[in-house]
From TrEMBL:
Its main location: membrane. One of its GO terms (cellular component) is plasma membrane. This is Multidrug effflux MFS transporter. It comes from Rhizosphaericola mali. It is a multi-pass membrane protein.
């Protein structure tokens, strides 16, 4: 078994950071190509959106389990095989005209990227200790957030210049180059392999999910990011069909959304010591006000930049909510930090992929009014969840006071 060499530690760290955004690129880079894919493959927009949903569910579910597999069998070989399969799957997507085969390949990609990303997160725990470990792990979300910003922007230009297939050629090249570099510079980093004990794993999962603030948090995270996904799956049709603009403009719209989410998360980090539940209500009320304004002005024929301005306000507070609750979920059970991270991330992926798919296909979201309705539906669910959470917290505090 090839071990990571000390002299390759630095470059291997850089490679790990380059691979962290892969999940976001695989999710977002082909969003501006949705309309052309539907036309070329002669399928409905719902079938194209399903390629995203299948990927998200696969990626979300597999995150719940790949950690214990990597802990039991090692990181390096599984990681290399996952990269190779990811490369081949993208080539097959380009070559096939069968939408159901594409659905299957996207399902496979969700699993392979889960192995790739989770193994690279574990890399920083395996290799570094103390302040270095804290420094590098704190950068993971910042590095990942570059993908939702850059991917649709890049995808818009690829779509305009070369067609939808170029997005998957890009992913294949990305994966292939990284595979070659990983073969040369990386190696196994696991210190001690763990025995695979499913009983213990399920006991921990049961403990986490029985805590209502944690389990409600997964739902809040899922429905919160669902707003971003509904926008992402709908904006190409709004831009290209309603405003009659090019895929490049779709990419710019997605770029604006990503920037808003980034700054919302940044504000959440700055307000980390503020009362937790008050922050959630501040975000929910702010989003609701903007969504209602978007609905009331839907008959005014707002220009695209004005619509995107309203979307950015909603997505700013979405980024604030997501970062606040995800951070809370990670520190809620410090003794099970890795498991809590996987469960919160994977569970929220499952929730928002299902929610966004059903909403985007239940409503024909090709204009401002339909988009505002989708936001209001998801926000209404979040408000109900926060009310349940408030009731749970109040009951818990009363029990502690009586004790």
């Amino acid at each position: 078994m090839k071990k990571l060499k000390k002299e390759h530690e630095r470059i291997s760290t850089i490679l790990a950071f380059i691979l962290i955004p892969l999940s976001g690129f695989a999710m977002d880079v082909y969003i501006p190509s949705f309309p052309q894919m539907a036309n070329d493959l002669q399928v409905t927009p719902a079938n194209i959106k399903l390629t995203m949903t299948v990927y998200l569910i696969s990626y979300g579910v597999s995150q719940l389990f790949v950690g214990m597999i990597l802990d039991s069998f090692g990181r390096y070989k599984i990681h290399l095989w996952s990269l190779a399969i990811f490369v081949v799957s993208n080539i097959f997507i380009v070559l096939t005209k069968d939408i159901y085969f594409i659905h299957f390949l996207r399902f496979v990609q969700g699993i392979t990227i889960s192995f790739i990303v989770v193994s690279k997160r574990a890399f920083f725990i395996d290799v570094f200790t103390g302040e270095k470990r804290k420094h590098y792990t704190s950068m993971l979300t910042v590095v990942w957030s570059t993908a939702p910003i850059l991917a649709p922007f890049l995808g818009g230009y690829l779509q305009k210049g070369f067609g939808w297939q170029s997005n998957f050629y890009f992913l294949a090249i990305y994966g292939f180059v990284m595979l070659l570099l990983e073969l040369k510079y990386s190696g196994e980093t696991i210190i001690e392999k763990q025995s695979l004990k499913l009983k213990n794993v399920f006991q921990v999962y049961s403990k986490l999910l029985s805590a209502k603030d944690f389990s409600i948090g997964i739902l809040v995270l899922g429905f919160s990011y669902g707003m971003v996904m509904v926008f992402g799956m709908s904006i190409p049709f709004i831009v290209e069909h309603h405003f009659h603009l090019s895929p490049v403009e779709s990419g710019y719209c997605a770029l604006s959304s990503g920037v808003a989410i980034f700054f919302g998360g940044f504000l959440s980090k700055k307000m980390i010591d503020r009362p937790f539940y008050k922050k959630l209500w501040l975000a929910a009320i702010s989003e609701m006000i903007v969504a209602l304004f978007m609905l009331f002005t839907s008959g005014w024929s707002l220009p695209l930049f004005a619509l995107i301005g309203l979307v950015m306000l909603i997505h700013f507070w979405q980024g604030f909510t997501y970062n606040s609750y995800f951070t809370y979920s990670l520190v809620r059970f410090p003794e099970y930090a890795a498991t809590a991270s996987g469960l919160a991330s994977g569970g929220s992926y499952i929730v928002f992929s299902i929610a966004s798919y059903f909403i985007s296909n239940s409503l024909v979201i090709d204009n401002q009014k339909a988009l505002s309705y989708s936001y209001l539906i998801l926000l209404a669910v979040i408000v109900v969840l926060l009310l349940i959470l408030k009731r749970y917290v109040t009951k818990s505090q009363k029990k502690l006071a009586l004790a």
